[in-house]
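ARCHIVE CARD
Drawer: 12
Card no.: 0347
Subject: one protein chain, sequence and derived structure
Cross-reference: see card 0346
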Amino acid sequence: MNKKIVEMVGLILKNLDHQVEKEKDLIDHLLLRGYSLKEIEIAFKWLAENTLARAAKTQTNSFRILTSYEKARLKPEAWGFLLKLKNFSVIDDELLEEILEQALNYGPEDDEINADQMKTIAQFKILSGRCKSNIQRSHVSVLYH
């Protein structure tokens, strides 16, 4: 997967948190940023094959309750972002736990994790943990900018 596709997958995931009314609006946004329709198609296909399809297979009716420690560490909007990813089937229960674990290990114990930090952690885990092709860390680092 090339660097532009990795960037685009990150942008798509970031836009899940915004109120994008239609898929067309998201595509128009990506086109304005200079991506081609072919690249956009590849990014959506990668998401479908590597996250959405897996999440659909393992979809459960479970609901994760935060512990008191987790509540103290996560700002409500950070937890809300994770729930949104879960509700959109971008992540499954297993990946939610992996992201949550990494977030709780992020920074000093008395710091709260905000939504932007959670987005960065989630994007990294989704791209690095589920990609079947060989993504180099330098490509994933683009998500931090």
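Annotation on reverse: The two ends are 19 Å apart (CA to CA). The chain has one domain: 3-144.
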